[in-house]
Amino acid sequence: MKSALVLGAGGFIGGHLVKRLKRDGFWVRGVDLKFNEHAETEADDFVISDLREPGNVRGVIDRRFDEVYQLAADMGGAGYIFTGAHDADIMHNSATINLNVADAAHKRNISRVFYSSSACMYPAYNQEDPDNPNCAEDSAYPAAPDSEYGWEKLFSERLFLAYNRNHGMKNRVARYHNIFGPEGTWQGGKEKAPAAVCRKVALAANGGSIEIWGDGEQTRSFLYVDECVEGTTRLLRSDFEGPVNIGSDEMVTINQLVGIVADIAGKKIEIDHIPGPLGVRGRNSDNRLIQEKLGWRPNDPLVKGLEKTYAWIEAQTRRNAA
User: Could you report the per-residue pLDDT of 83-105, keeping only the tens digit for each?
Assistant: First the structure.
């Protein structure tokens, strides 16, 4: 039986990735600081461990694995990343984990590690026009991410690719674009826009209003988690090292996102625009390279994933109210 290691398995994407690997017939070890708070893990072996400690990383990478997925990071939505209050933790925690993982995998003669970077590493100057953002993979330099989170992601991309050049590894790097779906963070400040909007609409009365940061005309694309996992496994098993975007190219404004969720809920919702952290003005996944290199690209419409996500979050709000 093939074996896989998922670092960050207690997180949203990691939890879904574990399920996929089990369906693919792998024996799976999951590692995280915590269990997933929304679903029971399907990992064969789950280790609670702080990957900032080198000895802990060597302890979980205790043998060769056929596939290693490095998703562990200090992250969250705009309310966590863009205030500046968490910059030191974000940079220190995530960079330390990646340094430890790259070194331990190399010393165990593990040839392939998948690393989950982020679209936040793209230059802010290419994302000022909400209607025409440039997120092609070759637009990354001159570097100018809009946050320290983005800078750390850029550094860690270079780290894993440097191990390819200097140590003969075959690491793979993907830049995730706003992944969403059930069993993810939906409240507390670290949630991303789709989850936050679903929660606000679920809690609002028909004809009521919800608060949105800024004018709501900032644009984004959002990728359902199942397609993210599909792209992730395809990339690790391919001959292409990346970096490559894994995201949807169905761009919407945040106001449009609210409208889609309101329609799903069958509610009329007004929007109260308030000041708040926004990030770049526009962002959308450029999927030309992933189509060229993998012969695949995400294609599911946004509404399909939002229907599943809204149903799950609405159920959580009812459970909390009970």
Answer: 889 999 999 999 999 999 999 99
* Other Cβ atoms within 10 Å of 33 Cβ, number: 15
Backbone angles phi, psi at 252, to 5 degrees: -135, 155
Tell me the DSSP string of 131-162: TS----GGG--S---SSHHHHHHHHHHHHHHH
- pLDDT category at 240 given cuts 50, 70, 90 is very high
Spatial distance between the Cα atoms of 230 and 153, rounded to a whole number of angstroms: 21
Residues involved in catalysis: 149
Name the class of domain 3-179+223-246. Answer: alpha beta
Cα–Cα distance between 251 and 257 in angstroms, integer? Answer: 10
* Contacts of 105 by beta carbon, 8 Å cutoff, 6+ apart: 61, 68, 113, 169
Tokens of 75: 């992250």
Give the three-state DSSP class for 69.
Answer: strand
Which of 79, 279, 32, 264 is CA-nearest to residue 187? 79
User: Residue 127: is its pLDDT beyond 80?
Assistant: yes
CATH number 3.90.25.10 is the correct assignment for the domain at 181-221+250-284+301-317: yes
> Which pLDDT tens digit goes with each residue over 29-49?
999 999 998 999 999 999 999
Instruction: Name the DSSP class of 39.
Output: S
* Phi/psi at 310 (5° precision): -60, -45
Rounded to an integer, the average pLDDT of 271-289 is: 91
Percentage helix, strand, coil for the chain under 3-state DSSP, each rounded to 5 = 40, 15, 40
Listed by start position, the domains of the chain span 3-179+223-246, 181-221+250-284+301-317
